[in-house]
Amino acid sequence: MLEVSDMHCKIGAHEILADVSFSVSTGEVAAIIGGSGAGKTTIIRALCGLQKISNGRISIDSHEPKRGDYGLVPQGCCLFEHMTALQNVSYAPMAVLKFSRKKAGEVARKMLAKFGLEGKMAAYPSGLSGGQKQRVAIARTLVMNPKVLLFDEPTSALDPEMTSDVIATISDIAANGMPTLLVTHDLATARKVSHRIFFLEHGKIIENRKTAEFFSNPHTERAKSFLKNSAYID
Ligand SMILES: Nc1ncnc2c1ncn2[C@@H]1O[C@H](COP(=O)(O)OP(=O)(O)OP(=O)(O)O)[C@@H](O)[C@H]1O
Ligand SMILES: [Mg+2]
User: Fold this and answer.
1) How far apart are alpha carbons 234 and 231 in whole angstroms?
2) I need a surface site. Which of 12, 18, 30, 218 has the fewest CB within 10 A?
3) d(CA 189, CA 69)
4) What is the CA radius of gyration of the chain?
5) Which atom of ligand 1 is nearest to the CA of 42?
6) Is this prediction's pTM over 0.70?
């Protein structure tokens, strides 16, 4: 379980996150939603240690997180364009875990096959569809065996069919036990894939609710108007 309590983040005099507390259980998918500039990406960056926090406690399974506990699938995939799918996925096991080329290739092949990419091992990113690229990016993250999975805008560049494909992939991974946290602008994605919604406004979580309840009956005026403006209220 990922547990975050009382997380604050200041940039200059500006408080970007204030008193952010939440938990994501094993097998659960939580979605952080909220308007532009609310602090969604900052939460993900703070968890990964890319953004310093001024206060707060974070734990994974009651332990202080270590480097490598988080698997981040960044926005827009960021695959290495000059490497094949197989090379993209086997790179970190070789560079970070010091696996031999043979062993790294084996784990990478297995992981790509799990995502239905057997036929794309030798393809370069330019020869892959958006959904396939996203699946390679997920495989590249999972091959490092993280304890918590983080996604920043996993479906932002995808058409509806590829979006469903990626949503199914995320649901499968989480069902296998990994706490999963995603940040998204796409309310339809959040609604389909997540069990819980953290609704963020000015760096504060102002609603932390089960997904179905949040969408059918938002409590705060801000969430009501956010859903209404997104044409997304029942
Ligand atoms: N390095 C930085 N220096 C100064 N301000 C920053 C920095 N990073 C983020 N901010 C500010 O922090 C706030 C939250 O930014 P963040 O990127 O987390 O928002 P977001 O919710 O992800 O927005 P979007 O939906 O547009 O991606 C914004 O007001 C942003 O301008
Ligand atoms: Mg963002």
Assistant:
1) 9
2) 12
3) 25
4) 18
5) 18
6) yes
The model's pLDDT over 151-179, given as tens digits with 9 standing for 90+, comes to: 998 888 778 878 888 888 888 888 888 99
Question: Taking a C-beta distance cutoff of 8 angstroms, is the pair 121, 85 a contact?
Answer: yes
159 secondary structure, DSSP code: -
Residue 17 C-alpha to ligand 2 middle, in angstroms? 13
Q: Which tokens go with 62?
A: 């009651």
Number of neighbours of residue 222 by Cβ within 10 angstroms: 17
3 state SS of 211: helix
Q: Which amino acid is at 157?
A: A
| Nearest residue by C-alpha to atom 6 in ligand 1 | 11
Residue nearest to atom 7 of ligand 1 (CA): 11
Q: Could you confirm whether domain 2-69+146-229 is CATH 1.20.1270.10?
A: no
**Is residue 72 a contact partner of residue 150, using CB atoms and an 8 Å limit?**
yes
**Cα of 43 from ligand 1 centre, angstroms:** 10
Identify the residue whose C-alpha is closest to ligand 1 atom 17: 41
Residues 196, 23 contacting (CB under 8 angstroms):
no
Alpha-carbon gap, residue 56 to 19, rounded angstroms: 8
At 3 the three-state DSSP class reads strand
Please give the angle made by the CA atoms of 183, 189 and 193, to the nearest 5 degrees.
Answer: 90
pLDDT, tens only, 91-106: 999 999 999 999 999 9
